[in-house]
Design goal:
This protein is an alpha/beta fold and about 260 residues long. The chain contains nine helices and 16 strands. The chain has a single domain, classed as Rossmann fold, CATH 3.40.50. It has a seven-stranded mixed sheet with strand order 3-2-4-5-1-12-13.
């Protein structure tokens, strides 16, 4: 079980401007639940790991954020998520946080705080970050995660969880939500522009890892800090511009 001193978290927050606020709530430690980084299309016919995540959450209701699809097809995004989790035996509750004002809504925030498993859908990464960054909704997601809730991100919903995160427009790095720090996650790895991928790897800080998650693949960090890969593809990890092993992910910090 991961135990992180609040004092250390506050120091890290001071060193990482743009990261989510961390509030001491009468406790000297937090326990982060599992966090999963899914490539697009991972879940097609693969309900086994989703069932495992549901079991760890202790709930059969998934709270879903279609935020990234706000300017695309929200209903389609919700339907994909509903079908995915139905295969694992769960119901879906979609929270309509589509714009910045929604992310400050207290009723939506309460739903997120009470959730035991939160799924964040694919779509526009810049829009998703701009809506959730330093919002009441993000504070609520952190509160749930720190109490052991499971966080699942797909595509943009996975990449936004890190700090830094990739700017998908050209491969540069920018500020993400910062639940996980010190790694840059690229989903659908192998289908992205080679030039953009190389730029991301070159721009990463020396102590940061660039993690490429191939299509139909999921990378999961459990409550003990151990990392596992599921699905048909592989995960490649780069540090100092070189391929490295999964062992490097043990040094990753969490909010």
């Amino acid at each position: 079980m991961l135990k992180v001193p609040i004092l250390m978290l506050k120091v890290l927050h001071m060193l990482m401007p743009g990261d989510p606020d961390i509030t001491e709530a009468g406790s000297t430690e937090v326990v982060c639940g599992p966090i999963a980084f899914c490539s697009e299309g991972y879940f097609n016919g693969r309900s086994d790991i989703d069932s495992k995540l549901l079991k760890e959450s202790g709930s059969d209701r998934v709270v879903f954020l279609p935020t990234a699809a706000a300017y695309q097809n929200v209903e389609h995004s919700i339907e994909i998520a509903r079908n995915r989790w139905a295969e694992a035996g769960a119901s879906l509750y979609s929270v309509p946080i589509l714009a910045r004002r929604d992310a400050e809504d207290s009723s939506y925030a309460q739903v997120l705080r009470d959730a035991r498993i939160i799924s964040i859908g694919n779509g526009s990464l810049p829009h998703l970050r701009s809506v959730l960054h330093r919002s009441v909704a993000l504070d609520s997601i952190l509160t749930a995660w720190h109490s052991g809730a499971v966080i699942v991100g797909e595509g943009a919903g996975a990449m936004v969880l890190c700090n830094p995160m990739i700017d998908t427009r050209g491969g540069a790095l920018t500020v993400g939500l910062g639940l996980v720090r010190g790694i840059v996650v690229l989903t659908d790895f192998g289908h992205e522009s080679t030039e953009k991928v190389h730029r991301s790897i070159a721009l990463a800080a020396p102590d940061h890892c660039v993690v490429g998650v191939e299509n139909a693949t999921m990378l999961v960090r459990d409550m003990t800090g151990q990392w596992s890969v599921y699905g048909d593809g592989n995960v490649r990890i780069f540090k100092h511009g070189q391929d490295v092993s999964m062992d490097e992910l043990r040094q990753v910090e969490v909010a």
